[in-house]
């Protein structure tokens, strides 16, 4: 039986998400629904069937939603329950804002990050920030301080803003012990698209692989730049040493194999893959973009390079190759950082209190 309305476990929360696959924001949302008190439901504005199935198999109430009209009809049916809407990307924000405005429902915006590279994306970013200024939006939760800065610069009221980084549930098993290896493997994990910087990864790794015969690289993911990347790898004569196995649904086997995770993104929030590597004990080399410098301190729990500077990124990877003792120290410190600051249980409690406070203020 559900608790009385107003207690955290009875609060109905409707998440709105448009998605092309299971990436960082989707992983965050799935874990969030399972860990945070409340009656969570995910409405997919568009998503591949396998993504919807993945949420259902995990026990999350979810369904597809064909368009704005269907969403408004669904919200009207549940209006008496006073559900709280939580949106997770631009389309979700736009649809959620319309629904919350018309039906006077509480609205929380989760900002995972922006990728304003094209004219269309820049417009989406601008409109997102403008909508966050309106009275319909009760809270804006940013996963990194750098994202909150953008909202302050756009004159979103400070009292609306809160930074709650992403977190991970406790590991089911300890990180594997790694012995001496004959070869060294650097990994890229993410969508093969411009904002994630797969080209910058190759800018760093191709010369390193040519310099070090024992070094290999793997690029895990799929996306529009895959063919271009493959052509570059083959032109460098590294087809057997820099591989593209495609999108991975399970990372555990790869964490056992990787000697370093390299994050070459041009823009980021607080990447889930960063936290996963830290938890798994895999040293991280990354550009200092978005929320990454909030998580990593250079030469303490990771290695940072100047954003988009592939030469600097290569130097940091070279440092890991040359200093195995440093790699072990970074790994140990990163595990402690993840457990102390990015544990899902503690962060879910912050979310729960935010939901309760927002719903209470909306009823006042």
Brief write-up:
Helices cover 45% and strands 17% of the residues.
Question: Would you write up a description of this structure?
Answer:
By secondary structure, the chain is of the alpha/beta class. The protein has two domains: 12-169 and 343-363, Rossmann fold, CATH 3.40.50.2000; 184-341, Glycogen Phosphorylase B (Rossmann fold). Helices cover 45% and strands 17% of the residues. Helix 11 links the parallel strand 12 (284-287) and strand 13. Helix 7 packs across helix 12 (310-322). It is elongated. It starts with 11 loop residues before the first strand and ends with a helix. Mean pLDDT is 94; it is low at 1-9.
Shape: elongated
- Say which CATH homologous superfamily of the largest domain is assigned: Glycogen Phosphorylase B
State the secondary-structure class: alpha/beta
CATH class of the largest domain: Alpha Beta
Oligomeric state of the chains present here: single chain
């Amino acid at each position: 039986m559900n608790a009385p309305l107003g207690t955290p476990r009875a609060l109905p929360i409707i998440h709105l998400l448009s998605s092309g696959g299971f990436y960082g924001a989707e992983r965050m949302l799935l874990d969030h629904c399972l860990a945070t008190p409340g009656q969570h439901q995910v409405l997919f504005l568009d998503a591949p069937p396998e993504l919807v199935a993945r949420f259902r198999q995990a026990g999350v109430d979810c369904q597809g939603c064909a368009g704005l009209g269907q969403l408004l009809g669904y919200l009207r049916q549940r209006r008496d329950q006073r559900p709280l809407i939580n949106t997770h990307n631009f389309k979700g924000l736009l649809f959620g804002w319309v629904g919350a405005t018309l039906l006077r429902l509480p609205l929380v915006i989760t900002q995972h990050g922006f990728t304003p590279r094209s004219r269309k994306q820049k417009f989406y970013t601008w409109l997102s920030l403008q909508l966050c200024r309106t009275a319909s939006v009760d809270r804006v939760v940013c996963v990194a301080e750098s994202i909150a800065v953008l909202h302050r610069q756009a004159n979103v009221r400070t009292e609306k803003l809160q930074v709650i980084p992403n977190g991970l549930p406790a590991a089911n098993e300890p990180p594997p012990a790694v012995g001496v290896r004959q070869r060294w493997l650097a990994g890229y994990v993410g969508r093969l698209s411009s904002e994630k910087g797969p080209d910058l990864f190759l800018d760093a790794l191709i010369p390193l692989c040519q310099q070090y015969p024992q070094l290999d690289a793997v690029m895990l993911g799929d996306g529009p730049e895959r063919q271009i990347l493959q052509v570059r790898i083959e032109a460098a004569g590294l087809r057997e040493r820099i591989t593209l196995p495609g999108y991975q649904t399970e990372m555990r086997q790869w964490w056992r194999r990787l000697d370093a995770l390299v994050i070459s993104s041009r823009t980021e929030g607080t990447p889930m893959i960063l936290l996963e590597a830290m938890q798994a004990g895999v040293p991280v080399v990354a550009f200092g973009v978005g929320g990454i410098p909030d998580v990593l301190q250079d030469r303490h729990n990771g290695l940072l390079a100047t954003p988009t500077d592939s030469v600097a990124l290569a130097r940091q990877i070279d440092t890991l190759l040359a200093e195995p003792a440093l790699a072990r120290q970074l790994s140990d410190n990163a595990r402690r950082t993840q457990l102390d600051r990015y544990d899902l249980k503690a962060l879910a409690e912050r979310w729960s209190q935010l939901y309760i406070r927002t719903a209470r203020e909306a009823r006042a």
